[in-house]
Write a structure and sequence with these properties.
4-stranded mixed beta sheet, globular, 4-stranded antiparallel beta sheet, alpha+beta, 393 residues
Length: 393
């Protein structure tokens, strides 16, 4: 088994052969993948060395100290955090060889075609249809709240392939080429003024059966891998102490004593403690994930992330008073990534409202925690054994 000392040696040899200062960025990233130093826990030949997942930080620290470029993970968060682990678990050998390397290097950005206008909280009720036609599937439907679709080359897509069985049983999972004819991406302007989200219309889009992940009709099980990884990617990101939003308000508190009141101080202390507990909980969850695939526990960490972001950003606006009402730019833009700490307090306050919706609404996640983590009785469901085509819509 590859240990920390061996990984440091391999990283040193790699840096000697590919000096960051004189190596093209993309060439460096491609070579890093080929050397197995991209995802060290992935198999050899797929960006890894079969090492423990917990040792990824060893490689990252060595390369960062040498000034090596990264793969701009915020730009391709869906690909790295959601598509890649799903492809690794359910993809064929050909799919893994085709998709994982350009995904990791950032040459191909991914988006997620899951939610629909009538299937958000109840995702399994989705109505986008995929009909078999020879070696292809012909897809028609509409997806919504698709982050980064305007920059994406590929999408992870779930579609209904059998309307005559209960809703969870008739879904199949695909990789969809966003450049194919029939894919229409339209911006959704948000409360921030930007349009990082999109709606995507699919009209007679042909997807080769070779781009199907998992068995026909088994898409809901495949999608659970994606969704569990999504919640961890959103809520369980690695942060230093006072990282993220709590760091911004703490900095303002220290630099602006004129804004302080006793009440604000007490509320800030509580949120600081909550943020630190969430950070340590996320660290513990990541250590657990190093031993296997994420489970429903990710729903809890994502719930806490949404609540904290909204409470912290609300307190920050209140702390700043009239200054908190200022907003720098309402220009309609289509950004490549979300930057919570690179803008002013007003942006953080508005953008954080989406945290309790994206990646699974807080209401849905509360049900997941109750039923799948705490083991509480499930809510009565009358549609579990009803064919999708017979459901009221």
């Amino acid at each position: 088994m590859t240990g920390a000392a061996e990984l440091r040696r391999l990283a040193a040899e790699f840096l000697a052969a590919h000096p960051p200062a004189s190596t093209d960025r993309l060439d460096f990233l491609r070579a890093r993948f080929d050397a197995g130093l991209a995802w060290v826990h992935y198999p050899e030949g797929l960006g890894g060395l079969g090492a423990p997942r917990s040792l990824q930080g060893v490689v990252d620290a060595e390369l960062a100290a040498a000034g090596a470029p990264d793969n701009d993970p915020r730009r391709n968060g869906i690909g790295l955090g959601m598509a890649a682990p799903t492809i690794l678990k359910y993809g064929t050998d050909e799919q893994k060889q085709r998709f994982l390397k350009p995904l990791w290097t950032g040459e191909e950005v991914w988006c997620q075609l899951f939610s629909e206008p009538g299937a958000g909280s109840d995702l399994a009720a989705l109505g986008t249809r995929a009909v078999r036609d020879g070696d292809d599937w012909v897809v028609n439907g509409q997806k919504v709240w698709t982050s980064g679709a305007h920059n994406a080359r590929w999408a992870i897509l779930i579609a209904r392939t059998d309307p005559d069985v209960p809703k969870h049983a008739g879904i199949t999972y695909f990789a969809c080429d966003m450049t194919d004819p029939g894919v229409d991406v339209r911006p959704l302007r948000q409360i921030t003024g930007e349009a990082e989200f999109n709606e995507v219309f699919l009209t007679d889009v042909r997807i080769p059966d070779a781009h199907r992940l998992g068995e026909v009709g088994d898409g809901w099980r495949v999608a659970q891998t994606t969704l569990n990884n999504e919640r961890v990617a959103i809520g369980g990101m690695a942060l230093p102490r006072e990282g993220g939003m709590i760091g911004k308000i703490a900095q303002t508190w220290r630099e602006r004593p004129d804004l302080r009141t006793h009440d604000l101080h007490q509320r800030l202390l509580k949120l600081w403690v909550d943020a630190e507990v969430a950070r340590l909980t996320g660290e513990r969850l990541r250590q657990q994930l190093a031993q296997g695939q994420p489970g429903p526990e990710g729903a809890g960490i994502k719930l806490g992330f949404a609540r904290l972001n909204q409470e912290i950003s609300g307190l920050e606006v209140e702390l700043l008073g009239e200054e908190g009402l200022l907003y720098d730019d309402w220009t309609m833009r289509r950004p490549e990534s979300v930057d919570f700490t690179g803008r002013e307090a007003g942006y953080r306050y508005l953008r954080s409202k989406g945290n309790s919706i994206e990646g699974g609404t807080s209401e849905v996640l509360l049900n997941i925690v109750a039923e799948r983590v705490l083991g509480l009785p499930a809510e009565p469901r009358t549609d579990k054994d009803v064919a999708w085509k017979d459901l009221a819509r």
